[in-house]
Amino acid sequence: MAVAPTAPKRALFVPEHDDYRESFQKFIAAEVVPNYDEWEKAQLVDRELFKKMAGHGFLALEIPESQGGQGVADWRFNVVLMEEATHSGCGDAIGGPLLHTDICIPYLMASCTDEQKDNWFPSVASGEKILAIAMTEPGTGSDLAGIKTRARRDNGDYVIDGAKTFITNGINADLVITAVRTAPDKHRGLSLMILERGMPGFERGRNLAKVGLHPQDTAELSFSDDRVPAANLLGEENRGFFQLVAKLPQERMSIAVGGVAEARAAFEHTLRYVKERKAFGTTIGSFQNTRFVLAEIATEIDVTQAFIDRCVNDLNAGELSAEDAAKAKWWATELQGRVIDRCVQLHGGYGYMLEYPVARAFTDARVTRIYGGSTEIMKQVIGKSLGL
Fold it and tell me: What structural domains and CATH numbers belong to the chain?
């Protein structure tokens, strides 16, 4: 599906991004849409999707060309991928590859040694090895400093015990960036390890049944005497908390970009619906209430888009602050939920039927106000930046 026709003119993109957008639209139509229903029922996308996206230049954008990637540092290309995944109605199926590309790879780019890059980058860039990141634990959500999964030294290796939950790509993943505790200090005692598929003691639990985002696998992971070579330490020991904090603004911007794109997609579907659906002898779009609701939605989306685009430019320039990322994340996801709820209402009973895109959007939207840091945590970040 093309970019929404009511989208405002945006100075964010140049013709190269438009060409990339068109190419990704064609890829989605050929490789994702025909398989979507099957993946939704399986609650898991085929691993071949990662390889196909890599083959068309839609995966692992940051990894250098010499190691199989695209060598692209312009985050606006990532924005194009996220927006088009959403506008296609198949964003939840493409969520795994996007997490691989947009959230996991930056950790590798920032912290891998040359040896680790040579070892992992080619297979990560080709989609042969799939990435996930494991922070959340059964008793620890937004409180990163509360992570309890432990790693102890033993003859040059690390031995890991603990559990993670709500891990996107958890079933498909071959390499899992895992936050573990290597020292008692809450903030200066965390480290990041790369856990690999097949390591003894590394087990996958259920593919969790979710309210929405059905094609996107979400798993429980457990570690029992999981022996990990010291060479799999990502970055410096006991610097993991700071590595996570440094990359969270980009993760939150990814969620914000998706949030406003989902809101616009729901608006577009609803605008078309109210122009066709009739009640009391006329289209429901002709009712004053409908016009007022959609006028409010259109304005809120356009105003939010302007702020999101500014933040994208700041991120590209290396100037995005943690508080602006928090503002973008909480505002865009709350907008997403608010807009989609109003769009369901304008659809009436049909808005509750899964054959209508707005119904799937409704179930998919709720979690965005939770993952990546809840709305309440975002307000805490912003409040602290005000000296409160």
Answer: 15-126 (1.10.540.10), 131-238 (2.40.110.10), 242-385 (1.20.140.10)
Of the candidates 197, 20, 23, 37, the residue with the CA atom closest to the CA atom of residue 46: 37
Give yes or no for residue 4 having a pLDDT over 60.
no
- For residues 387 and 149, give the distance between their C-alpha atoms in angstroms, rounded to a whole number: 33
pLDDT tens-place string over residues 341-361: 999 999 999 999 999 999 999
Give the separation between CA 337 and CA 355, rounded to whole angstroms: 19
Inter-residue contact 308 to 256 (CB < 8 Å): yes
Place of tokens 């509750």: 352
Burial of 277 (0-12, 13-18, 19+ CB in 10 A): middle
- Check: CB of residue 98 under 8 Å from CB of residue 60: no
Catalytic residues: 251
Can you give the C-alpha Rg of the chain in angstroms? 21
145 C-beta neighbours (distance < 10 Å), count:
13
Task: For residue 233, give every residue at least 6 positions away whose Cβ sits within 8 Å of its Cβ, in sequence order, or none.
Answer: 158, 191, 192, 193
